[in-house]
Amino acid sequence: MENGLPTPHSDLPISEATVRKAQNDHTLDEALQLTGFGKVQLILSVLSGVSMMTVVNEAVGISIILPVAQCDLSLSPWEKGILGGSMLLGIMVSSYFWGYLADTRGRQRILKYALFGTSFFGATSCLATGFVSLFFLRLLTGVCVAAPASTVYAYLGEFTTPSRRSQMLSFASVWGGVGIVYVSLVGWWILSYDWVLTISDSFEFKPWRLLFIINTMPGFLNGIAFCFCPESPKFLVSQGRNEEALEILKKVYKLNKGTDSTDGYEVTSLRLDPEDAIAREQSENGSGGLLKSMVQPIVKLPYVVYFIICCVHNIGAFTIYGGLGLWFPDIINHMFSANAKVEGNKVCNILEQNGTQAIGMELCNDESETFSYTLISGVMSVVQGIAVSLVLGKIDVKIMTMFNFTVAGICGVTLQFVTNPYAVAILFCLMIVFAGHCVVLVNANVVALFNTKVRAMTIGLTNVFGRLSGFAASSLLGNMMLVNCELTLIMLSLLMFTCSISAILLPSKR
Known about the structure:
InterPro entries: MFS, MFS_dom, MFS_trans_sf. The chain is mainly α.
């Protein structure tokens, strides 16, 4: 020992500068921990939540618009299903592409451009004159909204320490419920009018067209807000841009601590977390081209098992949330229509009693109960999101995932025996809300399980499978409920229970 400094592996003394350097060299998670938790995380959680709200606005909004627009656009039930799922199809084909761009070009840059694109095509949807034009506009909306649908989880998660990551992602997801409330209220308001602006002999601008523009406004404002947000420091470090990342962390420290000085911030240099360092080394030394570098980290054990399970979970969640959720307003319309209000009728009896006319029957308007129960499902989603956020720090994400899928499955089974229309509507709400929140929990699992270099791509790829199932379900569930409603509900419930049981194989993460 010399100058009070131990030299366990050498007779040479260790200089004070060397010790100081070792003490001040931090991983990003350590550096984030030292910035504290405060204003920055809360603001970014709200902005990320509004991005999730943008996705919900586009997905749920179309389900409210289609029953009203079907007469003007001469839409068949099959075409309504395709249109409802067209956005999911757009998300499916572009999710992995956006994930790759987010992992190589930056989270913040991709988010702001994609949000502006979503707003443009979402608003332009009001100009559609038929099935084909509306399909392509909704498809392009889905292509753009795929980025905030997945990348935002990586962005917010990388500004948050591991101990709070799942909790903050769950808190941000509350805004998805706010989105459902938003589209329900503005839909109820706008569609209560019956004015018509005649633009030409073949085109009339009606309230349902205005609804496309109003639904997409939060996304446009969110894009403007992201222009002023910093890039993810974890992304910058993974790209070797450590100095830029350190400057961002210093700003985070000042905002969280409410000070103009960074003298109390101990971090002077950054290093990669061990998993990210290994991933970068493999990427630099690997061979086989772009595709191999993108896929190789995912297909190794045990990550390939986790990846498959997350895909199964997204398939289950989107089948209910994106598929059954699309038909929810239509089902409620017919549950509360005049000829369905017969005591003792089960939901399946009501949907099957008129055969192919049940869901496909052209009501050309939404019953008031449609808005009421869509609004209730939004409020339920907000309450559940807040409750889950409060307990996630104490309960494993895996346990919450199992609980949500199990509740959704139980609701599906119970629906076959309940005759009260109000109870049926509540059970549908619960099934959609609990399955829908699993989308957030799955993405939280991906953020926790996969390293920075492939995180956004993995979220995107799992969402490909989820959106594919959502598109298939939105296209098929309407007719399946008509042909054999009971069997359809049993199949959906079994899918929920399968997802719940498979979650046992995931590692525990809080």
